[in-house]
Amino acid sequence: MAGLAEEIAARALRYVIDPPSEPDDVINFASPQELLTVFDATVGLSLDEEVTAESNEAIVAAVELVIKHSVHTTHPRFLNQNFAGPDAIAVVGDWLGAALNTTGATFEAAPVFTLMESAVLSKLGRIAGYLRGGDHVPTLPPGLFCPGGSTATLYALQLARHRRQPDIVRVGSSGESLTLFVSSAGHYAATKSAALLGLGTEAVIKVDSDTTGAMIPAALEAAIAGARDAGNVPFAVIGTAGTTVTSAFDDLNQLADICDAHELWLHVDGCYGGSALFSDTHRHLLRGVERSDSFVWNLHKMMGMTQQCTALLIRAPEQLAACFASNADYLFQPDKLYADYDSGDRTFQCARRIDVLKLWLAWKHHGDVGFETRVDHAVKMADYTRARIAASNGAFAAVVPGNFSNAVFAWVPAHLRPLDLDPASIGRLAPDVHAELHALPPKIKARMQSRGTAMVGFQPVAGLNTFRMLFMNPNVTTGDVDAVLDLIDEYGLAELGSS
Amino acid sequence: MAGLAEEIAARALRYVIDPPSEPDDVINFASPQELLTVFDATVGLSLDEEVTAESNEAIVAAVELVIKHSVHTTHPRFLNQNFAGPDAIAVVGDWLGAALNTTGATFEAAPVFTLMESAVLSKLGRIAGYLRGGDHVPTLPPGLFCPGGSTATLYALQLARHRRQPDIVRVGSSGESLTLFVSSAGHYAATKSAALLGLGTEAVIKVDSDTTGAMIPAALEAAIAGARDAGNVPFAVIGTAGTTVTSAFDDLNQLADICDAHELWLHVDGCYGGSALFSDTHRHLLRGVERSDSFVWNLHKMMGMTQQCTALLIRAPEQLAACFASNADYLFQPDKLYADYDSGDRTFQCARRIDVLKLWLAWKHHGDVGFETRVDHAVKMADYTRARIAASNGAFAAVVPGNFSNAVFAWVPAHLRPLDLDPASIGRLAPDVHAELHALPPKIKARMQSRGTAMVGFQPVAGLNTFRMLFMNPNVTTGDVDAVLDLIDEYGLAELGSS
Fold this sequence. Notes:
Largest interface: A-B, 162 and 163 residues
Helix content of chain A: 40-55%
Structural class of chain A: alpha/beta
Distance between the termini of chain A: 55 Å
CATH superfamily of the largest domain in chain A: Type I PLP-dependent aspartate aminotransferase-like (Major domain)
CATH topology of the largest domain in chain A: Aspartate Aminotransferase, domain 2
Number of helices of chain A: 15
CATH architecture of the largest domain in chain A: 3-Layer(aba) Sandwich
Number of domains of chain A: 3
Oligomer: homodimer
Strand order of the largest sheet of chain A: 2-8-7-6-5-3-4
Mean pLDDT of chain A: 96
């Protein structure tokens, strides 16, 4: 087994050190049926009635197929999602955590990682302005690591509900109609969490956002008043720091003012945009975050940590135990050594993967300056893209102005140029023009995928499919941006020619 | 950075191939303060106001400290928890997944892994008896991968509630007092989930279990009737297949009969014991699981997958979308290629780490026979331990008979031998005897930890601290069992001598 493990590890390491980087290496696209056929030549993707032990050669061949047909999120022309370009130190830090395979729930099972989590959460809490100075490795750090941003928002809303109704943990919902608020451009974690919490998706009031995607504070005020008038009980507001589509930032200070006035919990969804705090240039986007009650920050997005590395910061972490403790006496024995460091009874999960090691190693390696450079570079590439779009003589039309690390735009066929495509203008498009533009992005993207030359997301904005390029990967150059825009132009023209 | 990444990877690989295995290598125990001091000699555990980039040499030195001071869960005398002895192929499979860093939510971002998840979930579903034959890589597989067993139970209870009240996802709890049932020996995920779901911890009725830890079916019948009489609405029963402390298995057929009669959702918590299904010899312990509605199975426990690898199997997976879908149009665009394979809108999480690759690789490498051997070996070691205890002339006293992969027992000082320590007998101990016995396990364990010679869990059973040895690691030998029992005897005697 050691030989096979080494063979697989060698291929994984080669991938980290020297990932596919040719212009058509973003993906070797294959349909589900093609993938099944390709794997049948090695060990078969399916697990049949009897699974026989395969030879090492067959397993290695399968590993090579897995690599070949996976999407290469390391490639600088993978601009498809709000993660890309994993940091090599983070990847091998993740590996070391997997090798040491333990759970973060207790000091006993994870002595180093318990302290490391405390150190990192304390630092993140200080960056967010929740703490000043103080113990840098506290017994009770200001937060938790969670398996993803949605889960963190779920926990935050439970904390918010618990502050409003401390007995709900014990007696359950009274049927009182609790209501929370998020911008219409906010992440769906809000509604998914409301469903799971038993609040119901209708408990989530979608507050109007402006054309950039930022919540309109006056609309929040009106929505709160409207909810109260309808007999509902507002309890929380989710401010978004970096919306999923346009990367808009809500004005957190204005939201905090409103939350203060109405005694509402302010949760900040900074899954994507939280990393702006690493940058002197861009930190201002989160002004006011220090006034929030909770703040989720996905380090696996812009900072290149592997899936997942989510910090849920909590201003008053002493609430966690009341909300989540089980007091399981087989695990959190008070009579074992240093039990006061155990983190497991402050969260929902029992066994918990070590997500902190990779972040700690990468931070110690790159330093604050390295982290800042990564963020600044991402925004620079987005700035460059936006400038290229503005100077494209109408070939591309910006949908939102944008001020962070993504660009949302459409490709416009020559016969329709110039075309204003801000959300209000989209609403005024003639139906045939709308239909023509709407159909293009999926077709252009399918060409990218089948050729493996790039991956760029698309999604409807104001009902129109538009492109979204996301900059996360420090290896993206202006040459990559030029190339991908050229590809969109080329494939768009080819679509027009073929239709 | 490549050089440093390679240096860290080399140390991680060395750890996988040749982990610490000397008799005192289970842990190099240090207190929190000692750990902080030790790290201060390299880069420091804390992240101070300014984090400067450290040299590669300092990072490598820190990595070596991380390894040195972590608990060696690979060591055959780490018998502390229901995971141990990670499978080397699973570890490097995990590494490959981290290197390819993507999310399991969409076919677009995870083409190979989407099909692999379907293949593995389909196989697990067939093993559990949810499916027979059929498509081995279905578009809609019978389940999900989840970040841990507690989360899976949370999702299962949401599905159960949704079947009872389909509009609760939208309108929230009506305040109707929904009630669920789990044995008094069941996992705390039930109460934690009830709190999060807004049901409240009081919605969880703890049904009496017998002295082995298995639920008493007649007590379940009585509890359901009692809840109805009190005006509550029973909706789900959690059957446990392998309780945390005594590894007891509820009689799932009897539970299924009761659930059928009362139209209750039957969720099986097989986090620990589910792996008995891999063994012809032990599969009978889960007889009736095929009649359940959902079934959670942690492959990161007995099967040696790294944290985490949790399958939540669902008999009727078409319910998932109704329960969890967000229909987010930036991610689950119906107009992209093969969107019908996307799994992300059937679960709560958005981005989701690839947990399937390691399991798929390990299964293809070991085959069904290899998996069966791992399970059978674990139970054999537990059988051997139980036999040693029975033949110890009273030095050790079994607390429960046990029939799976753990042993629960006490060390009995010579002046108290022989002593019956089944739970009923524990209740009849004289207070001074109880106090003397109760104080010993934490002290004996502290000696193990400080010497690094073994790790064995302890927890109260019927109010008395008792040892729990868990067998998961295929490298444990009868010699290891002998050695650890001898250590307990030695440290127990030393405690008596020092007190």
